[in-house]
């Protein structure tokens, strides 16, 4: 509770009238408010004087923001996240001397007559009794109701403020919640302040010890509750060097009682075993402390993963590409590495894969690995109308057509000079435009619409399509000569469910999503298992959308998310997916009872041929008389009636 006794506005009004006569009746006021009023009167501040608060000049404010850069870097993402969930207050970040640094939240009518803009100085010595100034003196969260502002009796707001400390106990800044004077539950902002203080300490600890091993730990008994996790920092030999306040609370001890202890004496497990687990399985782990089951997560130093987990580089500097293909089937990974070398040599590369498999992300990795000096430029050939795409690709001169941009437009080929151009969804490009594209690629020159001179182009070309372009060629929907020009190297991007380390991949993507939202929440192992076991027809894009919906829909401050936190549509999807194995087992037991068709038989024939070739796609494709990409795509579209024992494992 904020107050042991709640004071009504009428009681505070009596105290105010006495204060006007120079006397503070502390028995009519909350203790901290009474002490503040006494200090104000003793310093010569006049009751109800409503002084205009000092405002920093723009240059001074820039200097102040620079001085508090680290505080803002750590607190702003948390404040933005919290503010986005609150519509009845303004969230304010201030410096250790109560200077307003940042104000967040929607416009509020009750703030019309209140000056709390960035650069406003609000220490108690200038502004009298107010929450930002008072919390710095009390060194704890405080509530100041509207009528308790000694110098501003007619103010229309109340405030809750809490100081934010560094790891040594010094004030780094504060957070303030300013709300309407008639708010029915001002005490709810104490919960927000407490959550923010804990979340800020968490982020501060992670930032302060980012070059050390950090173990996040929580008792299993409080795992499903909104309890923050404790943080322990270890040096390279596994000795504890620091512990967060929540860790000390978890272990019911003091920091001096823990610092210097080896991890084995704390959890009964060797340091080498913990590090090895982190290297192989970067998810959560189970620990035990004096008979209590605990959940933990060990994170390496900021520079450790880059040094120890990068694969051995081959010629071509494949760092970005290798990061994406480490869990691909080996034959597809080989083609991916070949693509880097081909692109470096100036040859086009064709990417094929279902929607959401990450074709644009892979194209960006190719661009990075070729160390291009120019930019990465992408155009979606399916997203632009037929009459627009030509000008977007090749550019146009001033006055080339009605509505042309004044001064003309360079087009994507010229924008990508010295870099990489991604022609996404090229299978949807109109046939007549394909002929012009072929000529541009062959001649390495482009003529803008309305122009006459050819302009040389110097960019690497990556094309991408979710369609099998070879099939489109057979159907007469794609030019054969353009296909052969683009398909010097074809990379088939595997579906998400084919990733070898899917639990780790889900965990990595979860932490990417959390980083964007300033969250440190973790996934319950059962939920992680469900996410990794789902077939994800929309691949990476669908998974990312699911994780984003899970995170933004969670209550602020939740440390661990479970299946119950999923939006209902995803819970239903997972429940329906859980029924599939039973039906598949039935098919497996009695395949002869299933209706068969030509597609089923073709699929079985391809699968048997692949098995006969020991999994070699190139040899199987040659035997069948089809392209390797066609074989790969058809095998990964299993017929509904195909026997379960013939499922491809690639």
Query: Can you tell me the residue ranges where pLDDT is under 50 for at least 5 consecutive residues?
Result: 305-318, 579-596, 639-650
Percent helix range: 40-55%
Which CATH architecture of the largest domain is right? Answer: 2-Layer Sandwich
- Structural class estimated from helices and strands: alpha/beta
Total strand segments = 19
Biggest sheet descriptor: 5 strands, antiparallel
Return the CATH topology of the largest domain.
Beta-Lactamase
Kindly provide the name of the CATH class of the largest domain: Alpha Beta
Please name the fourth-level CATH homologous superfamily of the largest domain: GAF domain
Number of domains: 5
Mean pLDDT: 80
What's the N-to-C terminus distance?
A: 60 Å
Strand content: 5-15%
Strand line-up across the major sheet: 2-1-5-4-3
Radius of gyration: 32 Å
Short summary:
The protein is of the alpha/beta class and 650 residues long. It contains 28 helices and 19 strands.
Account of the 3D structure:
This protein has a 5-stranded antiparallel beta sheet with strand order 2-1-5-4-3, sandwiched between helices. A 5-stranded antiparallel beta sheet has the order 8-7-6-10-9. The protein is globular, with a radius of gyration of 32 Å. A hairpin with a 5-residue loop joins strand 7 (230-234) and strand 8. The longest helix has 21 residues, at 188-208. The model is unreliable at 305-318, 579-596 and 639-650 (pLDDT under 50). With 650 residues, it is α/β, with parallel strands linked by helices. Helix 4 crosses helix 7 (188-208). It has 5 domains: 9-192, Beta-Lactamase (2-Layer Sandwich), CATH 3.30.450.40; 209-305, 2-Layer Sandwich (Beta-Lactamase), CATH 3.30.450; 319-492, P-loop containing nucleotide triphosphate hydrolases (Rossmann fold, 3-Layer(aba) Sandwich); 496-567, Helicase, Ruva Protein, domain 3 (Orthogonal Bundle); 583-646, Orthogonal Bundle (Arc Repressor Mutant, subunit A), CATH 1.10.10.
């Amino acid at each position: 509770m904020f107050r042991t006794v709640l004071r009504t506005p009428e009681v505070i009004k009596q105290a105010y009238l006495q204060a006007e006569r120079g006397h503070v009746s502390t028995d009519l006021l909350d203790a901290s408010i009474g002490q503040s009023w006494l200090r104000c009167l003793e310093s010569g501040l006049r009751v109800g004087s409503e002084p205009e608060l000092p405002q920093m000049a723009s240059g001074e404010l820039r200097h102040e923001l620079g001085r508090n850069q680290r505080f803002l870097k750590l607190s702003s993402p948390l404040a933005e996240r919290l503010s986005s969930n609150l519509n009845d207050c303004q969230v304010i970040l201030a410096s250790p001397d109560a200077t307003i640094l940042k104000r967040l939240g929607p416009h509020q009518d009750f703030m019309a007559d209140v000056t709390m803009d960035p650069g406003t100085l609000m220490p108690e010595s200038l502004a009298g009794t107010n929450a930002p100034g008072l919390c710095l003196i009390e060194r704890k969260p405080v509530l100041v109701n509207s009528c308790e502002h000694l110098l501003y009796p007619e103010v229309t707001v109340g405030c809750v403020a809490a100081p934010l400390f560094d790891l040594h106990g010094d004030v780094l800044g504060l957070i303030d919640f300013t709300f309407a004077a008639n708010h029915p539950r001002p005490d709810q902002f104490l919960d927000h302040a407490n959550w923010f203080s804990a979340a800020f300490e968490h982020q501060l600890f992670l930032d302060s010890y980012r070059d050390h091993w950090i173990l996040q730990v929580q008792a299993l008994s409080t795992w499903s509750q909104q309890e923050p996790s404790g943080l322990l920092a270890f040096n390279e030999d596994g000795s504890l060097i620091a512990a967060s306040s929540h860790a000390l609370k978890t272990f019911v001890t003091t920091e001096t009682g823990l610092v210097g202890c080896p991890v084995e004496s704390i959890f009964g497990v060797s340091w080498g075993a913990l590090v090895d687990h982190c290297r192989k399985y970067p998810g959560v782990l189970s620990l035990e402390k004096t008979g209590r089951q605990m959940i933990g997560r060990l994170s390496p130093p900021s520079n450790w993963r880059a040094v120890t987990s990068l694969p051995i580089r081959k010629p071509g500097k494949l760092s970005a590409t290798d990061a994406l293909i480490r869990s691909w089937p080996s034959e597809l990974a080989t083609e991916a590495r070949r693509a880097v070398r081909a692109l470096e040599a100036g040859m086009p590369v064709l990417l094929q894969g279902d929607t959401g498999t990450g074709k644009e992300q892979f194209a960006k990795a190719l661009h990075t690995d070729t160390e291009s000096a120019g930019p990465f430029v992408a155009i979606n050939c399916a997203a632009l109308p037929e009459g627009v795409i030509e000008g977007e690709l090749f550019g146009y001169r001033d006055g080339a057509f009605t509505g042309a941009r004044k001064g003309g437009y360079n087009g994507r080929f010229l924008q990508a000079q010295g870099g990489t151009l991604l022609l996404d969804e090229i299978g949807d490009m109109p046939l007549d435009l394909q002929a012009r594209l072929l000529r541009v690629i062959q001649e390495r020159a482009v003529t803008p619409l309305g122009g006459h001179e050819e302009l040389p182009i110097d960019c690497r070309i990556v094309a991408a399509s979710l369609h099998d372009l070879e099939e489109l060629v057979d159907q007469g929907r794609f030019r054969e000569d353009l296909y052969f020009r683009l398909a010097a190297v074809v990379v088939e991007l595997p579906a998400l469910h084919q990733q070898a380390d899917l639990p780790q991949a889900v965990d990595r993507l979860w932490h990417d999503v959390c980083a964007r939202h300033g969250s440190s929440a973790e996934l319950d192992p059962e939920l992680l298992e469900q996410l990794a076991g789902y077939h994800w027809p929309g691949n990476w894009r669908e998974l990312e959308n699911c994780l984003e919906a899970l995170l933004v829909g969670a209550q602020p401050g939740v440390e661990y998310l479970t299946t119950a936190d999923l939006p209902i549509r995803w819970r239903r999807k997972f429940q329906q997916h859980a029924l599939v194995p039973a039906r598949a087992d039935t098919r497996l037991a009695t395949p002869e009872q299933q209706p068969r068709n030509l597609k089923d038989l073709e699929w079985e024939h391809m699968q048997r041929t692949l098995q006969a070739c020991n999994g070699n796609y190139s040899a199987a494709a040659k035997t069948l008389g089809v392209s390797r990409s066609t074989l790969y795509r058809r095998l990964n579209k299993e017929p509904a009636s195909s026997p379960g024992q013939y499922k491809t494992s690639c």
